[in-house]
């Protein structure tokens, strides 16, 4: 059985980032743009964890923790602005 290498994770990260980027560029709905931004951040998280695991250094996983914290704050502020905008 073949093991999954870092290249496989990077391909998945590139695909996720591309789909998120297309969502940001092509969509006009603010909620879908926020969801696409989150998809892009998750693609970066996948790439960071893949590089972290490949190198044996846990710094990438630490950065993922901070990115998830910032993403949660971004979603809270973005949804609050969205609700205020549509009232």
From TrEMBL:
Q: Report any one BP term from Gene Ontology.
A: ATP synthesis coupled electron transport
- Where does the chain cross the membrane? 6-26, 31-51, 63-86
Alphabetic keyword roster:
Membrane, NAD, Translocase, Transmembrane, Transmembrane helix, Transport
Main location per the UniProt record: membrane
- GO cellular-component terms in the record? NADH dehydrogenase complex
The record's subcellular locations are: Membrane
Q: How does it sit in the membrane?
A: Multi-pass membrane protein
What Pfam families does the annotation carry? Oxidored_q2
Q: Which GO terms of the molecular function aspect are on file?
A: oxidoreductase activity, acting on NAD(P)H
Family indicated by similarity: Belongs to the complex I subunit 4L family.
Recorded hits in HAMAP family, A to Z, give: NDH1_NuoK
List the NCBIfam families.
Answer: PRK05715.1-2 (NF004320)
Q: Give the protein's recorded name.
A: NADH:quinone oxidoreductase/Mrp antiporter membrane subunit domain-containing protein
């Amino acid at each position: 059985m073949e093991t999954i290498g870092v290249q496989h994770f990077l391909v998945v990260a590139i695909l996720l980032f591309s789909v998120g980027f297309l969502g940001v560029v092509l969509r006009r709905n603010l909620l879908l743009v926020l969801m696409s931004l989150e998809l892009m951040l998750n693609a970066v998280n996948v790439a960071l964890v893949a590089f972290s695991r490949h190198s044996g250094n846990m710094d990438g996983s630490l950065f993922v923790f901070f990115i998830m914290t910032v993403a949660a704050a971004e979603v809270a502020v973005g949804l609050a602005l969205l609700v205020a905008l549509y009232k």
